[in-house]
Specification:
341 residues; alpha+beta
Length: 341
Amino acid sequence: MDDQPARLGLDVGFGDVKLAWFPDKLRTITFPAVLGRAEEPSSGQRLNLGLGGRRRRIQTLEYRGHAYFVGEGVIIESRLGGTRQNAERIGSEEERVLMLAALARAGIHEALIVTGLPVLWWDRRRDLVRSWRGEHRLTVDGKAQTITVREVRPVWQPLGSFYARFLGDDGAALSEEQTLRAGFGIVDIGFNTTDLSGLHNLQPIPRWSGGVRVGVRDALDVLSARIEARYGVRRPLAELAVALRSGQPLTIYRETVDLKALASSALTSLAQEIVGETTRQWGQADRFYSVLVSGGGAALIGKAVAAAFPRNAEILPRPALANAIGFARFAQRRIFRADRR
């Protein structure tokens, strides 16, 4: 079966890129969704002090005449290119490069992909499919390769959380049909948006579904402004996001800055805004068997959001990866055109 396309889940978020697939068991890859300008001289070798330091991973990726740095080390070691933070990124070359970087890092050269789009921007799904599908020639760390995306199956972003909760690694349902056909609410807290999806009888219910243009970025904007007011410097939002999620302090000049303390009130306000929109849509969520809380923002404010629904809310394990894992599990089912041949 090694000659078969890899069936995978890919979540090219505005904060991070997340890939999940099953070469033997579940494997995942995560890196910041930012592109750096590849300006390092090609003839020079990277220096090492010889004191045990280690650089964070960076890929050099050349595609269609442009060179990019991609990976965890980009935020520190490269000047960041402009990254679009709205619906215009969907179907763009920037998004496509991030997709290809994930597949290249995983060593995948042929793929069947399930991915998700925010409910607010679902009408852009055809742009994404046209952009990703096909044969792509690129150079990664100096080595030429071809990556072929055979098919792309977009779904509503929050459905990845439902698949992660109720499908096994082989794509089979883990719960009885009666449970699966009950009502479910999904709160997917992303970087730019928060998606709400209501399901019943295994179908999305439009009046229970929607989204709001608030996400982790809103809290990061407040945090960035506070840092600038206190220290007179600005740090990229991507750097603040990584530090905040990891719980690592930020060093500014000689001072160690506790970001969680500095961002506390902004995160509280974000949680309150999301809870307000959720209760407006669902009331007390009494029609739902469960309210699933997921997304990259769930690691920061998931408990506060779940507390609004104490009878039936649950925060998914590894919430930032939940959608990608769910997409990958859904991809194991017979959902592609290739399965009907």
